[in-house]
Design brief:
The structure holds 2 protein chains of 2 kinds. By secondary structure, chain A is of the alpha+beta class. Helix content of chain A is 59%, strand content 19%. Chain A is rod-shaped. The chains are: A alpha+beta, B mainly alpha.
Chain lengths: 466, 126
C-alpha cells in the first residue's frame, strides 16, 4: 500500500505546474523524490526483505514447530496406540484370566459335585452296610443319644427305630425291650467285648460296645448285637452229644474194668502168668479208654460252662507224691528216673482237689510219655509267700516241642507231630483241660521247651492263706 | 439196684463171698419192692436205670412213712460223675458217691465194709 501512495503523487503534480522550471523543479524534485523514493523503496524493500526473512524465519519456525508437533503427535499417537494395545492386551489377559478362573471354578464345582456324589455314594453305601448288616447295630452320639438303629436291631429287639432315635440312654433303659441290654453292658456304656445275654430261650445275643474315635477324639459309640443263638444251640447239641456218647461208652468200659480186675484179683480162680500178663495189659488199655472218655466228658463240661469247682484245703506236695508213686512202676519199664526236688513243705492250697490232681497227673504222664529210654524227670514245687502262689514244675529231657507248634500246644485236639510219632495214644485234650482248670483257679500255665532236649511245664495256683 | 447185669452179678458175687446177704434189682421199681420186703441195712444204688432212676428211689425213700426206710444208708454207684449230680445226691443224704469207672469191685467192697465199721483187711461175717 505505501508503494501506491508514493507513485501517484508525482503524476498529479506534473499535470498541475508550469512546464519548464516548474518542470525542472518538478523533475528535480521528482528525481529527488524518486531518489528518495528509491531509497525509500529500497528501505521498504529491505524492510520487506527483512520481513520476508522474518516471515521465512517464522515459517521455518512454524515448520519446526509443526515438525515438533508432528513428532509429538506421532509420539502421542504411538503412545496412545501402545496404551490401547496395552489395554487391549490387558483386557485380553484379564479375559483369559477370567476365563481360566471360570474354568477353574467350574472344574472345582465339578470336583465338588463329584466329591459330593462320591460322599453321597459313600454315605449310601455305609447306610446300606449298616442297614443290611447281619448284626444289630445301634449308633450313639457323644451325648449317648441314639442316632441310628438298623433293621436287624429292630428285628432282634422287637422295637420301632423311629420311636427310639433321638432319645438318650436314660429313656432307652426304661424301654422293656432294651432294659436287659443296658443292664448287661451298663448304662454308661463302657467299651465291652462280646458279653453274652440270653434274652429268651430262642435268642442269645453277644453284645459289644465299640467307642468310635477319630483323631483321638471320641465321636460316639456303636452297640453291636450279634445273634449267637444258632452257635449256642449247636454248641449245646454238640456238648450233649459228647456227654451222651461218653456216658454210653463208660458203661461197657466199666463192665470190662470190673470183670478184668475181678479176674486179675483171682475171683474166678488162679491164673497162669501168661494169662495174668495179657489181662493186665488189656486192663491198661481199658484204663486208657476210660481216661479218654473222661477227657471228652471234661471237655463237654468246660464248653457247657458246667465245670464247677469244689474247693477244699489239701496238701499239694502229698498229692504230687501220690502221683509220682503211681507212675514209678510204668517208668521203671522204660528205665526213666523220676525225682521230686526243691520242695518247700508244706504247700497247702484251697482248690478243687480232683481237678488239680488231673493237672498234676496229666503233666507227669506227659513227661513220662514223651521221655526217651534212660530219661530223667524232675518234679519241683516252690512257693512264693509274697506273691501268695505256688509253682509246680515238671521237667523232662524228652523229645521236646517243635518251635512252630508251640503256640498251639494248649488248643484242644492238638498233638505235636513228634508227639504223634512217639505216642499214638492221646486225645489232645489234656493240656486244654489243664489250662482251663489252672486258669479257673486264678493260676497260670506255661512251658519252656527245646526240640530233642526236653520240656518243662509250669503252673501256679494261689496259696491258701490262713 | 443196678441195671447193668455184669456189674450187678460181679458185685453180688463178691459181697456174698464176703458174707453179706444181697438182693439185686435191675431197676428202681423192683428195688423199692425189695426194700419193703427185705428191709436191708444198706442200699447200693445206681442213678441211671430204666423205669425208676436212683434219684426217684431216694426221693421215695425219704418221703416214706416207714421210718426204717428213711434211715437206710445209701451208697451211690454211678456211671456219671457230674458235680451237679454228686452235690444233689449228697444233699439227699447219701453216705458215699462212687463213680464206677474209677473204682473196681474190691474198692466198692471196702466202702461197704466201712459203712459197717469193718476193717477190710479182716475176714468178717455179717
Amino acid at each position: 500500500m505505501p508503494e501506491e501512495t508514493i507513485l501517484e503523487k508525482p503524476e498529479r503534480k506534473v499535470n498541475n505546474g508550469s512546464p519548464d522550471l516548474a518542470l525542472l523543479e518538478e523533475m528535480s524534485r521528482t528525481s529527488k523524490l524518486l531518489v528518495r523514493r528509491d531509497l525509500e523503496l529500497r528501505r521498504v524493500n529491505e524492510e520487506l526483505d527483512e520481513k520476508i526473512k522474518l516471515l521465512e524465519n517464522d515459517e521455518i519456525r512454524l515448520k519446526e514447530m509443526n515438525d515438533i508437533l508432528e513428532i509429538r503427535l506421532k509420539a502421542r499417537t504411538r503412545q496412545l496406540t501402545e496404551t490401547v494395545n496395552d489395554l487391549d492386551r490387558q483386557v485380553k489377559e484379564r479375559t483369559e484370566k477370567i476365563e481360566a478362573s471360570r474354568k477353574a471354578l467350574s472344574s472345582a464345582l465339578d470336583d465338588l459335585k463329584r466329591e459330593k456324589t462320591a460322599a453321597d455314594e459313600e454315605r449310601e453305601k455305609t447306610l446300606a452296610i449298616i442297614s443290611n448288616f447281619s448284626d444289630g447295630l445301634l449308633v450313639f452320639d457323644n451325648q449317648d443319644v441314639l442316632g441310628l438303629i438298623n433293621p436287624e436291631a429292630e428285628r432282634l429287639l422287637h422295637i420301632q427305630g423311629i420311636d427310639m432315635v433321638g432319645r438318650a440312654v436314660p429313656f432307652l433303659a426304661q424301654v422293656p425291650e432294651l432294659c436287659a441290654i443296658f443292664t448287661t453292658i451298663g448304662a454308661d456304656m463302657p467299651e465291652v467285648s462280646r458279653k453274652e445275654l440270653e434274652l429268651n430261650a430262642n435268642l442269645v445275643l453277644e453284645i459289644s460296645v465299640v467307642i468310635i474315635r477319630r483323631g483321638g477324639q471320641q465321636q460316639g459309640k456303636f452297640v453291636i448285637l450279634h445273634n449267637i443263638t444258632r452257635e449256642k444251640t449247636i454248641e449245646k447239641l454238640k456238648s450233649e452229644f459228647v456227654s451222651i456218647a461218653a456216658n454210653q461208652l463208660r458203661t461197657p468200659l466199666t463192665s470190662i474194668k470190673w470183670i478184668l480186675t475181678s479176674l486179675l484179683g483171682g475171683d474166678f480162680g488162679e491164673l497162669n502168668p501168661e494169662q495174668k500178663d495179657y489181662l493186665a495189659k488189656t486192663n491198661q488199655s481199658n484204663e486208657r479208654m476210660i481216661r479218654l472218655v473222661d477227657d471228652l466228658l471234661n471237655l463237654s463240661r468246660i464248653e457247657e460252662g458246667r465245670y464247677i469247682q469244689k474247693k477244699e484245703r489239701f496238701s499239694l506236695e502229698e498229692l504230687i507224691d501220690k502221683n509220682i508213686e503211681n507212675i514209678r512202676f510204668k517208668l521203671k519199664n522204660k528205665r526213666v528216673d523220676i525225682s521230686f526236688e526243691d520242695v518247700q513243705r508244706p504247700v497247702e492250697v484251697l482248690a478243687d482237689k480232683e481237678k488239680i490232681n488231673l493237672v498234676v497227673q496229666n503233666l507227669i504222664e506227659n513227661a513220662a510219655n514223651y521221655s526217651r529210654e534212660d530219661g530223667r524227670i524232675v518234679v519241683g514245687l516252690s512257693k512264693d509267700e509274697e506273691k501268695g502262689e505256688t509253682t509246680f514244675r515238671v521237667q523232662d529231657n524228652g523229645i521236646g516241642i517243635p518251635e512252630d507248634q508251640k503256640d498251639r500246644i494248649f488248643t484242644k485236639f492238638f498233638r505235636a507231630q513228634n508227639a504223634l510219632r512217639a505216642q499214638t495214644v492221646g486225645s489232645g485234650l489234656g493240656l486244654f483241660i489243664n489250662k482251663n482248670i489252672v486258669e479257673s483257679h486264678g493260676g497260670r500255665i506255661w512251658f519252656e521247651s527245646e526240640l530233642d532236649k526236653g520240656t518243662t511245664f509250669f503252673f501256679t495256683i494261689p496259696l491258701n492263706k490262713p | 439196684m443196678e441195671d447193668e447185669e455184669v456189674l450187678a452179678e460181679l458185685l453180688q458175687r463178691k459181697l456174698i463171698e464176703r458174707g453179706y446177704e444181697v438182693t439185686v434189682a435191675p431197676n428202681g421199681v423192683r428195688g423199692m419192692d425189695n426194700l419193703r420186703e427185705t428191709k436191708p441195712d444198706l442200699v447200693l444204688l445206681d442213678i441211671i436205670m430204666p423205669e425208676k432212676g436212683g434219684f426217684e428211689v431216694m426221693e421215695e425213700m425219704n418221703k416214706s412213712e416207714e421210718t426204717n426206710m428213711q434211715k437206710v444208708p445209701v451208697i451211690i454207684i454211678s456211671n456219671s460223675g457230674q458235680p451237679v449230680e454228686i452235690d444233689r445226691a449228697l444233699a439227699m443224704g447219701v453216705r458215699d458217691y462212687l463213680i464206677k469207672a474209677k473204682f473196681d469191685p474190691a474198692e466198692v467192697i471196702e466202702k461197704v465194709d466201712k459203712q459197717f465199721g469193718i476193717d477190710s483187711a479182716q475176714n468178717v461175717k455179717s
